[in-house]
Design a protein that fits this description.
25% strand, PhoD-like_sf, disordered C terminus, PhoD-like phosphatase metallophosphatase domain-containing protein
């Protein structure tokens, strides 16, 4: 069985009254056209599909021998697509005299479990709101194929299926806010098929580059399960402790996106028997053991248990893929990276960034990750942000067969030096997506940290966005047509307002072990907003300069969900209100086992206190953040003070650690936030 014609998609990407973008990945080159329909219906009964006169511009990028990425721009012949209207679409694939449609691939049959249509509709559908109608948003982050628990995208698909004809309830945007893939935490069963599929997609040029980057005596580890940690730590200078099967080649990054989005790719894997048993791996010498010979039996037993557990989780994940694809085929989708899309701890410090950039292999892997991110995620967010120069540089980097070629060097440097991944989504209100990874500013002064009776020096946490970065974001926001005194949505992959009780627990019991280098499992990174007072103040003061009516902050990353309201009073006059909703993870429950029990105990013990009392915080001229009310005269002038309130869910908790995806609806000045999961919890904010 050969590769499927449609490798992944279609996915509805950026949608505006003047244009609709559709993304799709194919295994061969074809001509593509599109048709948009206006769907007339009443009382759940569809009457007719009226074709609209449109023009399709097909942008194509050959990313490998068998990987063609298409971004279709569909524009109306008239000025705008009709708002407040259900719109459907079909695609036409032309090769020679033969023309296929989505129906040709059995994607439009409502009886087919792989169908990408809802209910009795003939086509996948979407809506464009009127400029005065607030959008209904789905939002979440952190989705890993071998993650624990149920995939929350399945719950989102069920919701859209139930409301697909109700435009007052149907979500009209999906925000994926980081860690759409895990490049550093790859399941053992995926490694053999990842390397095989990656080569088939991208071709042999990548292997030639890796032969130049990796010593000959270590190159065999690329094809061995559990074999890459040494390469990742000592050649690439990465800090992840889960790099046993880390993505390295561009084709592997592409394969991981297909694993995460495409049910058809799993048909191909099963038909070609690429999913191997642990016994088959042993017999083919595809397992790397890190221990001495006399300890190998115990190590093999440990790896087999891990392999079987991950295999079970991957099989459960595959079941949800058709739902995830249907959701993205019918909901305009906007995506921003966090660290795991590239590697854990990506740009966490100046030391990390410098060490990786100085490593040929480390720099190469980041280049591959960014190229794949652009093709699979970034391109559809704001296509006009990527000019011909950018496209040509990425082509030169991917297509090069040697690290000494000019195309490779200039393309790789262009990707590393590109800092315009942020964008504004055309939602109502507008949504500005922040890039908190490539626009950082580092303070090189060491900071003393006390660990028990020891004092160590550690790198200061960075400003997640530099002053220049904020200027670029402000320019883009104002150019988008957003105006002050109107609401604003802000997506920050890491929450601006954390959950103090959880962070305190992690800081007290977990972080000291992490600093000392002990292998403690935690999903919390200590490079968040609040760990740099200057960066925290820069965020608040920048938003204040924009002067929105209020701001809705949407975040993920931390593997728990919460709702927070903050009112900020500036000493210079003026107020700002922030409503933060965090939804994480979509599919990667982390607080399980002993840590999960301890975490739930902390939540239970502190929930009443947080529900009944506001927290107060202030920031002085030295940018130190101080908890508590400031009734006394201080040595320095305050810049601002704020009160913070945690909003509880229906069960009384103020945080949820199970897999979920947020559903946010604005109705009559009311923000209604619901977590979609096996059991729904909801909370509205007046």
């Amino acid at each position: 069985m050969g590769l499927p014609a449609i490798l992944s998609g279609p996915i509805i990407r950026r949608v505006e009254p003047s244009s609709v973008y559709i993304w799709i990945a194919l295994s061969s080159r074809v001509e593509i056209d599109a048709q948009i329909f206006e769907i007339e219906y009443s009382n759940d009964e569809v009457y007719q599909y009226i074709p609209l006169r449109t023009y399709t511009e097909a942008n194509i990028f050959k990313a490998g021998d068998n990987l063609y990425i298409y971004l279709l721009k569909i524009s109306p012949n008239h000025v705008h697509f009709p708002p407040r209207t259900l719109l459907g679409y079909d695609l036409f694939f032309k090769k020679g005299r033969k023309v296929r449609t989505l129906a040709s691939y059995n994607l439009l049959d409502p009886e087919n479990p792989r169908s990408i249509v809802y209910g009795n509709l003939k086509y996948p559908s979407f809506t464009i709101n009127h400029e005065n109608d607030p959008d209904i948003l789905l939002y979440g982050s952190c989705r890993k194929p071998h993650g624990q628990g149920d995939d929350a995208l399945f719950a989102a698909d069920v919701l859209v299926g139930n409301k697909h004809l109700d435009l007052t309830e149907r979500p009209n945007a999906l925000f994926l806010m980081g860690d759409q893939i895990y490049a550093d935490d790859v399941a053992d069963p995926l490694l053999p098929i990842m390397t095989e599929l990656g080569r088939e997609l991208a071709g042999d040029s990548e292997r030639d580059k890796l032969n130049e980057l990796i010593p000959e005596n270590l190159i065999s580890r690329l094809d061995q399960v559990n074999g890459r940690q040494f390469l990742i730590e000592h050649l690439a200078n990465y800090t992840t402790r889960k790099g046993d099967n880390h993505l390295i080649a561009f084709g592997e990054y592409a394969a991981m996106y297909l694993f995460s989005w495409s049910p058809e790719i799993w048909d191909y894997i099963h038909e070609n028997e690429h999913l191997l048993s642990f016994q088959q791996l042993k017999e083919s010498d595809k397992i790397h053991l890190k221990v001495d010979h006399d300890k190998r039996k115990k190590e093999l037993s440990r790896l087999e248990a891990r392999y079987e557990e991950q295999m079970d989780n991957v099989r459960d994940f595959i079941v949800s893929l058709s739902a995830a694809r249907r959701l993205m085929a019918n909901t305009p989708t906007y995506m921003i990276f966090d660290d795991h899309d590239l590697t854990d701890d990506w740009n966490i410090s100046h030391k990390w960034t410098s060490a990786v950039r100085d490593s040929s292999l480390g720099k190469h892997i980041i280049g591959n990750g960014l190229a794949a991110y652009w093709l699979f995620q970034g391109w559809g967010n704001e296509p006009e942000n990527f000019d011909r120069e950018f496209v040509n540089e990425v082509k030169g980097f991917i297509a090069s067969s040697s690290i000494d070629s000019a195309g490779y060097k200039t393309g790789l440097n262009h990707l590393w030096d590109f800092h315009s991944w942020h964008f504004v989504a055309p939602t109502n209100p507008k949504t500005v997506f922040l890039d908190t990874r490539t626009q950082r500013e580092f303070d090189l002064r060491p900071e003393a940290v006390k660990l028990g009776s020891l004092i160590e020096e550690t790198t200061r946490t960075p400003l997640l966005i530099s002053e220049a970065g904020w200027e670029n974001i402000s320019t883009k926001l104002l150019q988008s047509g957003w105006r002050s005194k109107t609401p604003l949505n802000i997506v920050s992959p890491t929450p601006f307002y954390g959950m103090g009780l959880i962070e305190s627990f992690l800081h007290k019991y977990v972080y000291p072990f992490k600093v000392l280098g002990l292998p403690v499992q935690t999903s919390f990174d200590f490079d968040g907003w609040k760990y740099n007072g200057k960066g925290f103040h820069a965020f608040i003061s920048r938003v204040a300069s924009w002067d929105p009516a209020y701001s809705v902050l949407l975040s993920g990353d931390v593997h728990f969900s919460s709702a927070v309201k903050s009112d900020v009073q500036f000493q210079s006059g003026g107020k700002q209100s922030f409503y933060q909703f965090t939804s994480s993870p979509i599919h990667n429950e982390s607080f399980t086992g002993l840590w999960g029990v301890l975490m739930k105990s902390v939540l239970w013990l502190n929930a009443r206190k947080r529900r009944e009392q506001s927290l107060y915080r202030s920031c002085g001229e030295s940018y130190n953040l101080t908890l508590g009310k400031n009734d006394e005269k201080l040595d320095e002038q305050l810049l601002w003070e704020e009160s913070i309130d945690y909003i509880s869910f229906e069960d009384g908790n103020i945080a949820e650690t199970k897999n979920s995806i947020g559903y946010l609806k604005v109705e009559k000045s009311r923000l209604e936030n619901t977590l979609l999961m096996t059991v729904d919890y909801s909370e509205g904010l007046e």
